[in-house]
Amino acid sequence: MRKAQKRQVEELLSGISEIHKEIKKGCGQSMQQAVMDALALCQQKAIELGGVIEDSEGEGFRTVLCLEEYCESAYQAYEVVSQNPEVNPNKIYKLLNKSIVKVENSVRNDIRYRREAVFLPYKASMWDSLESVWKAADADPDCDAYVIPVPYYDRNPDGSFKEMHYEGASYPEYVPIIKYEGFDFDAHRPDMIFIHNPYDDWNTVTSVHPEFYSSNLKKYTEKLVYIPYFVFGEIKPDDFETIEKMKHFCFLPGIIYADRVILQSENIRRIYI
User: What is the largest CA-CA distance in the chain?
Assistant: First the structure.
C-alpha cells in the first residue's frame, strides 16, 4: 500500500473513532435516532475503508475481515439501541471500540507500506550519479523504482528554447526506462524524487523541460532529493578564496527546493550549509 493510501485509511479510522465518542455521548442523553444514524454512518465508513484496502491488498485480506467483524458489532449495537433507548453508553462504546482497535492493529501490523522512488536523469552521461541509489531502490522488495529520462533543450542567446534532446535510448540495457509522457506525477505522488540537474531556468546554455524544474516537482513529493552530477576537488571550510569561486553552486534552485541534498564529503556539506 502506498503512503497516500495508508494516510487515507488512517484518516477514515480516525473519523470512525470520533463518531464513537458522539455515539457514547448520545446514548447518555437518550438521543436514540441520532445514535442509530451515527451507527449507520460507522458502517458506511467501514465499507468505504474496506474498499480502499481491497483495492490495494486484495479481497479477503486480514484487515478487511476485521472490518467485517466491526460491521457486525456496529449492527449489534444498532439493534440494541433501537430496542432500548436507555442503553448503557459505556456498553455500546466498549463493543465498538474493541472491534475498531482490532482493525487499527491490523492496519499497523498487516499492511506493508510500499515506497515509490522516481529518478529523473536528463543526460545519459550523467546517469552514474544516480545509478547506485537506483540499484539500491530497485533491489528493495518494498520499493517501486522508476527511471524516467527527461527531455532537455539547447537555448538561444535570448534564453528561448531551440532543439530538444531526449536520451532515453542511451541508458544501459539493464535499466528499465519509463517514457516521461506516460507517467502521471499527480496520480503517483512519489515518496521520493531524485534529480541531478539543479538549474531549473538558471542555465543559459541548456534547460530541462520546465515540467521537470525542481520548483514544479516539489508539488508532487514530500522528499525531493538532489545529487550533483559532478564532484568538487576537496575544499576545506576555511579556504575562503576557493569557496568564493564555487559558492554559486550552493544557491541553485534545485538546492533550495530539495528536501535532501547528497554531497561528496563532510567538508563540502559544511560549505553548503
Answer: 84
On the CB side of 56, CA atoms within 13 Å amount to 22
CA 198 – CA 210 distance, rounded (Å)? 12
3-state helix, strand, coil in the chain (%, to 5): 55, 10, 30
Instruction: Report the C-alpha gap between 148 and 220 in whole angstroms.
Output: 15
Which residue in 155, 131, 164 sits closest to 145, CA to CA? Answer: 131
Alpha carbon distance 104, 82 (integer Å): 27
* Cell numbers representing residue 150 in the block: 527527461
Helical residues (DSSP H) of the chain, grouped into ranges: 3-28, 32-57, 62-83, 89-110, 128-139, 185-188, 214-217, 240-246, 253-257, 266-272
3-state SS, residue 226? strand
What region does 107 belong to: left with phi over 0, alpha with psi -120 to 50, or beta? alpha
Angle at the Cα of 101 from the Cα atoms of 99 and 105, rounded to 5 degrees: 120
pLDDT digits (tens, 9 = 90+) for 18-67: 999 999 999 888 789 999 999 999 999 999 999 989 988 988 899 999 99
- The number of CA neighbours under 13 Å toward the Cβ of 68 is 8
The pTM assigned to this predicted structure is: 0.75
Q: Is 59 exposed, middle or buried (0-12, 13-18, 19+ CB in 10 A)?
A: exposed
pLDDT tens-digit readout, 148-179: 999 999 999 999 999 999 999 999 999 999 99
206-208: strand order across its sheet: 161-165, 152-155, 206-208
User: Backbone dihedral region of 189: left (phi > 0), alpha (psi from -120 to 50 degrees) or beta?
Assistant: left
Helix (H) or strand (E) holding 206: strand 206-208
